[in-house]
């Protein structure tokens, strides 16, 4: 633990390392503090005018981008941002990753993890994971018997957890994993979020072996008191409240069930990786595509891929209509799994943007579909859509 000014000075040095900085994210807010931005992203970019420090600030509805020349301009802007009461700073450099979290006592909890790829490109705007957000020698890996591939998946997944961690409560975080399976990413999230705050974890799966496996791992790690696994469907899961909801590779409409449960629980953060997309595929069988889009569905393999994209686009649109800020990213490398799309959503409570309802209704009407998530959240969506 460090005095906050000391920790922020280390963050400032990393942000102003013109040739070392890869990407940085500031999010959340300190207890009792308010600020105009929900999130700030910083990265170096190459423009025609030369190298610049790009700063993207997000409010409840939109993003604002500005570029600053290295030197005094960049230093002044970074100084202004560090004065804002952000609760979390996540800074990736070519050499290491810094994670700063401001505790409820106003101190700086700063962790560093060395990058295993110091020669990686330093100005890429992507969602590839930094290495070792969870230390390679963490006891979790020994308990799970995780391979190198599993560890890389953990590192990649934890980047998305880190990107939204500032939105979570500073004292107690309730994590729910719907369709948890062997739960190795669930346990990784628990380990990563634990520090000076309490983390409660509920894992839900229909298989008894998943429950039994999760209980054994929790006992081995000595965290049985804060971790619970239940044998249940998503619809019947005993969820009273949730801050972070995970659903990783729940098949077809199980993904929609997880999203619906998360919305009804008013979860703050949703990290959902869809798998299989049969619902809209079946609705479009034998149906003509609207003009002039028949070319998109003429070939079976392209039709399947297009409907996958349509399904997840409609899911993201519905979440936005219900007050969530949504990003769609790749959370692991495609060579690890082709199902590597992640819906990353944060509840803001903001009303739909102008034209968003009409845009959604035009899309579903043109294609003649009713997404499963719309059916499951019928009561919540009627007042928003203005029709059943």
Automatic annotation (TrEMBL):
Superkingdom: Bacteria
A single GO molecular function term of this UniProt record: methyltransferase activity
Domain Methyltransferase, chain residue ranges per copy: 150-283
Keyword flag Ribonucleoprotein: no
GO biological process: methylation
The keyword Methyltransferase is annotated on this UniProt entry: yes
Stretch list, region Disordered: 105-132
GO CC terms of this entry: cytoplasm
Pfam assignment, any one: Methyltransf_32
Keyword list, A-Z: Methyltransferase, Transferase
Record field: compositional bias (Low complexity): 111-123
Matching InterPro entries: Methyltranfer_dom, SAM-dependent_MTases_sf
The protein, known as: Methyltransferase family protein
Protein's organism: Motilibacter peucedani
């Amino acid at each position: 633990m460090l005095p906050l000014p000391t920790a922020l000075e280390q963050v400032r040095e990393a942000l102003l390392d013109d040739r070392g900085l890869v990407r940085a994210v500031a999010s959340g807010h300190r207890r009792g503090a308010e600020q105009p931005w929900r999130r700030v992203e910083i990265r170096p970019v190459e423009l025609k005018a030369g190298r610049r420090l790009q700063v993207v600030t997000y409010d409840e509805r939109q993003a604002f981008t500005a570029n600053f020349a290295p030197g005094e301009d960049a230093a002044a802007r970074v100084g202004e941002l560090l004065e804002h009461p952000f609760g979390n700073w996540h800074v990736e450099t070519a050499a290491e990753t810094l994670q700063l979290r401001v505790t409820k006592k106003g101190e700086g909890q700063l962790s560093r993890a060395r990058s295993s790829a110091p020669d990686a490109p330093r100005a890429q705007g992507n969602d590839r994971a930094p290495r070792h957000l969870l230390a390679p020698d963490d006891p979790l890996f020994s308990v799970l018997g995780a391979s190198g591939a599993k560890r890389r998946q953990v590192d990649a997944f934890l980047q998305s957890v880190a990107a939204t961690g500032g939105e979570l409560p500073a004292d107690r975080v309730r994590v729910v994993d719907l369709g948890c399976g062997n739960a190795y990413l669930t346990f990784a999230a628990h380990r990563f979020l634990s520090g000076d705050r309490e983390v409660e974890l509920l894992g839900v799966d229909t298989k008894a072996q998943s429950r039994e496996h999760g209980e054994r791992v929790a006992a081995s790690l000595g965290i049985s008191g804060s971790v619970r696994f239940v044998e249940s469907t998503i619809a019947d899961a005993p969820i009273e409240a949730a801050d972070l909801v995970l659903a990783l590779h729940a098949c077809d409409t199980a993904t929609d069930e997880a999203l619906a449960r998360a919305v009804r629980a008013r979860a703050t953060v949703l990290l959902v990786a869809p798998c299989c997309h049969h619902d809209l595929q079946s609705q479009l069988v034998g149906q003509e595509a609207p003009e002039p889009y028949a070319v998109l569905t003429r070939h079976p393999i392209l039709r399947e891929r297009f409907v996958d994209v349509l399904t997840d686009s409609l899911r993201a649109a519905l979440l936005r209509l219900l007050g969530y800020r949504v990003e769609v990213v790749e959370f692991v490398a495609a060579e690890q799994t082709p199902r590597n799309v992640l819906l990353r959503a944060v509840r803001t409570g903001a009303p739909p943007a102008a034209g968003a309802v009409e845009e959604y209704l035009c899309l579903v009407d043109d294609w003649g579909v009713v997404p499963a998530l719309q059916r499951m959240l019928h009561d919540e969506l009627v007042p928003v859509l203005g029709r059943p």
